[in-house]
Amino acid sequence: MSKYLEAIYRGAALAPAFLLTTSLGGAEEENYGTYVIGVAPSTAEIKVDAGRLRDNGTFTGGVFTPFELQTPVNHYVIGRAKADTVHGIVSVRIDGEWYHVCGSARSPTFTVAEGKVIYLGDLTFEAKNGQLRFQLVPDLELARLQIGLEQPELAAQLEPGEFSARRVATACPQAMPITIPVYIG
Question: For a tag site, which of 140, 144, 145, 174 has the least CB within 10 Å?
Answer without folding.
Answer: 174
